Automatic annotation (TrEMBL):
Keyword line: Hydrolase, Protease, Serine protease
PROSITE patterns per UniProt: PDZ (PS50106)
Ranges where the PDZ domain occurs: 219-284
This protein's name: PDZ domain-containing protein
Family: Belongs to the peptidase S1C family.
Any GO MF annotation of the entry: serine-type peptidase activity
Provenance organism: Urochloa decumbens
GO biological process: proteolysis
Pfam families: PDZ_2 (PF13180), PDZ_3 (PF17815), Trypsin_2 (PF13365)
Length: 485
């Protein structure tokens, strides 16, 4: 391949739109073997998928993290080749839904130049999405414009980062493929679409600031450390009465802190009823937005997401009518119910047929489907959206199901009920519960569940019955490997 044709073309002199070079766009083939989160001692049947990716500098390829989640094999194929090359995962950013791949075979890199990244586009800028969506085996091109720029929820890990909304068609298989501006520069990666009944042609791109953050984060330390969070819950201060009642002068603006996550860096300095006036010198509006380019505003969480884990930020707050400044060290989120397990298999523990697990978003999806927010019990959703971890290792431990046996008669209907304490001791996480049960010498074991429900078992009989229950259901072990250490 001629190197001149491989390079992204420069804009022509008269300003006409440039057709992007498609040679760096690759097709991604992946074989997945997912854990079975509802039956955590086994794996689901493997399946295959295909998606899109793009070659960048340093012999690397970008695609979407959800396209290679739980991968057992990843292959890449260039547009001009009939060969699929084995790829290796260098770093996976689940929060930003980006993964970095490489290929050892030199043949894969011959004669192709990486894409060049462009600046964040403006509203109504034209974009061209290139990839391998369903409906054919060859490359596909769709066009549209940028219709909205805002912080939005990334579905793969329920994180909130900067995103581009476009009206170009994005379908299964497009994920990970690049979107080019009219200068032939890559301005984002396709990664999700709006599937609501009343939404037409609404797709989303991961913009270059997020992509650049991910790449630079990896290059700093050789691993992905994640996007930091502010670690607070807040409310707007648009109501004049609220504004006045908090002692705010008319010229002051900000947001009211309602809760502070105990595991966040802000917990050491911020308090409920504090009013955050600015972040890193940027004033925050009463609606929680900050200036963003010319004539635009955006949620102030965007300022936080631009920082790196371990960096410091200056926060100005008003407390009891006095203004204070705090320097906080930013860190990544440690939620009570994690959005992912970073590729690790799920943990579980079984005694007397009671299956104990730690709740995670993948577990909720396994139990209640992709739309778990509509179908999961309110008691779990409240914990998911509102509860906060008191320590980094705290977990929400539940009895996911009861494997029916003589020892547990009368308890068969218990499912997804939180275990609050064991023999009067609080259950901090699954490992704590395992240690307490395994070392229990009392005649009876007493599990206290939410809403006052209790489970009482004779210790010796319950432990003796466990192995028969495991054997009858071909379960290899009473606990996952991570709990045996």
């Amino acid at each position: 391949m001629d190197s001149d044709t491989a390079r992204s073309p420069e804009p022509v002199a008269n300003g006409c739109r440039v057709v992007p070079c498609m040679d760096p766009v690759v097709k991604v083939f992946c074989v997945h073997t997912e854990p079975n989160f509802s039956l955590p001692w086994q794996q689901s049947r493997q399946y295959s998928s295909f998606s899109s990716g793009v070659i960048i500098g340093g012999r690397r390829v970008l695609t979407s993290a959800h396209c290679v989640e739980h991968h057992t094999q990843v292959k890449l194929k260039r547009r001009d080749s009939d060969t699929k090359f084995l790829a290796t995962v260098l770093a996976m950013g689940r929060e930003c839904d980006i993964v970095l791949l490489t290929v050892d075979d030199n043949e894969f890199w011959e004669g192709v130049s990486p894409v060049e990244f462009g600046a964040l586009p403006s509203l109504q800028d034209a974009v061209t999405v290139v990839g391998y969506p369903i409906g054919g085996d060859t490359i596909s091109v769709t066009s549209g414009v940028v219709s909205r720029i805002q912080t939005l929820q990334y579905v793969h890990a329920s994180s909130e980062l900067l995103g581009l909304q476009i009206d170009a068609a994005i379908n299964d298989g497009n994920s990970g493929g690049p979107a080019f501006n009219d200068r032939g520069k890559c301005v984002g990666l396709a990664f999700q679409k709006n599937t609501r009944d009343n939404a037409d042609n609404i797709g989303y791109l991961i913009p270059t600031p997020v992509i650049t953050h991910f790449i630079e984060d990896y290059e700093k330390s050789g691993e992905y450390t994640g996007f930091p969070i502010h670690g607070i819950k807040w409310q707007k201060m648009e109501n004049p009465d609220l504004h006045n009642a908090m002692g705010m002068k008319p010229d002051l603006k900000g947001v009211l802190v309602t809760r502070v996550e105990p595991t966040s860096p802000a917990s050491g300095c911020l308090q409920p009823s504090d009013i955050i006036l600015s972040f890193d010198g940027v004033d925050i509006g009463n609606d929680g937005t900050v200036p963003f380019r010319h004539g635009e505003r955006i949620g102030f969480s965007y300022l936080v997401s631009k920082k790196y884990s371990g960096e410091k930020a200056l926060v100005k707050v008003m407390r009891d009518s006095e203004v204070h400044e705090f320097e906080i060290t930013l860190a990544t989120h440690k939620p009570l119910i994690p959005g992912h397990l970073k590729g690790r298999p799920p943990s579980y523990y079984i005694v007397a047929g009671f299956v104990f697990v730690a709740v995670s978003v993948p577990y909720l999806r396994s139990e209640y489907g992709k739309n778990y927010k509509d179908y999961a019990p309110a008691k779990l959703l409240v914990k998911h959206f509102h509860a906060m971890a008191e320590s980094p290792d705290e977990q929400l431990v539940v009895i996911s199901q009861v494997l029916a046996a003589d020892i547990n008669i009368g308890y068969e209907d218990i499912d997804n009920s939180q275990v609050v304490s064991f023999d009067g001791q609080p259950v901090k996480n699954l490992k704590t519960l395992v240690n307490m049960v395994e070392n229990c010498k009392d005649k009876f074991m007493k599990f206290c569940l939410e809403f006052g429900q209790i489970v009482v078992l004779e210790t010796k009989t319950a432990k003796a019955a466990t192995q028969d229950i495991l054997t009858a259901r071909c379960i290899p072990s009473a606990m996952s490997d991570d709990l045996k250490a």
